[in-house]
């Protein structure tokens, strides 16, 4: 995915400070740690390592690619990681935008879902439930390829961060709603752990 590739070029590093209360603004390192890594994704191969960058004009245009980069107001950091499944050629990209407050993340939620991310699973994609993860959540499952390959997108808010999973497969049976729910739940739980001041450790069951 272009976003993940662009982030890879930027590298990653430490920045800012954390906190022990919920809904804190995450540091750049906490954003990177929120993104699942190889240890959290048994059965998947890391194709773009977890990377976080400070939000600037370039990354706002990638993270919030709508008029005026709406939805990126008061954003601090942007992160991504990408995996490919070893068996079925499914791919998933995890994305994170970290904001300076819970209010800023909440304000951006509908702007980004309605304006861009909610359309990423195709025009005929249908909404489905992903459980009670996060403070806000949405998901759509449809087709992302030319011959009906499945694709799905989820968006979740956990405190001060917005989170996405974008999943696709070349095999029509490569992904299903249950697999998408599991991926979204892992990312949301890792974000919750980071905001609680813990090192994110949530992962898929082997």
Structure explained in plain terms:
This protein is of the alpha+beta class. The protein has helices spanning 2-10, 28-34, 57-63, 102-115, 177-195; strands spanning 44-54, 75-85, 91-99, 126-127, 136-143, 150-158, 161-168. A seven-stranded antiparallel sheet has the order 1-2-3-7-6-5-4, sandwiched between helices. It is globular. Residues 1-21 have low confidence and may be disordered.
Cα radius of gyration in angstroms: 15 Å
Silhouette: globular
Could you state the order of secondary-structure elements as H and E? HHEHEEHEEEEH
Q: Order the strands across the largest sheet as they lie in space.
A: 1-2-3-7-6-5-4
Question: In percent terms, what proportion of residues is strand?
Answer: 25-35%
Name the average pLDDT: 88
Please summarize the sheet with the most strands.
7 strands, antiparallel
Task: Return residue spans where pLDDT drops below 50 for at least 5 consecutive residues.
Answer: 1-21
Span from first to last CA? Answer: 25 Å
Q: What share of residues is helical? A: 25-40%
Outline the fold blueprint.
Layout: H1 2-10, H2 28-34, E1 44-54, H3 57-63, E2 75-85, E3 91-99, H4 102-115, E4 126-127, E5 136-143, E6 150-158, E7 161-168, H5 177-195
Which key phrases capture this entry?
206 residues; seven-stranded antiparallel beta sheet; 5 helices; 27% helix; disordered N terminus
């Amino acid at each position: 995915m272009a976003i993940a590739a662009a982030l890879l070029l930027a590298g990653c590093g430490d920045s800012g400070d954390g906190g022990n209360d919920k809904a804190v603004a995450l540091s750049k390192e906490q954003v990177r740690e929120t993104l699942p890594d190889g240890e959290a994704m048994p059965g998947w191969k890391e194709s773009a390592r977890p990377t976080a960058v400070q939000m600037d004009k370039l990354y706002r245009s990638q993270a919030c690619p709508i008029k005026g980069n709406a939805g990126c107001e008061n954003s601090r950091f942007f992160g991504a990681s990408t995996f490919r499944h070893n068996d079925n050629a499914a791919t998933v990209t995890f994305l994170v935008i970290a904001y300076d407050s819970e209010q800023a993340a909440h304000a951006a939620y509908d702007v980004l879902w309605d304006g861009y991310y909610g359309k990423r699973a195709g025009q005929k994609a249908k909404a489905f439930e992903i459980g009670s993860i996060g403070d806000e959540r949405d998901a759509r499952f449809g087709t992302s390829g030319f011959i009906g390959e499945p694709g799905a997108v989820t968006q979740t808010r956990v405190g001060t961060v917005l989170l996405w999973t974008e999943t696709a497969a070349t095999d029509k049976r490569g992904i299903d709603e249950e697999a998408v729910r599991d991926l979204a739940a892992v990312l949301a739980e890792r974000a919750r752990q980071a905001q609680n001041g813990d090192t994110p450790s949530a992962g898929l069951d082997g």
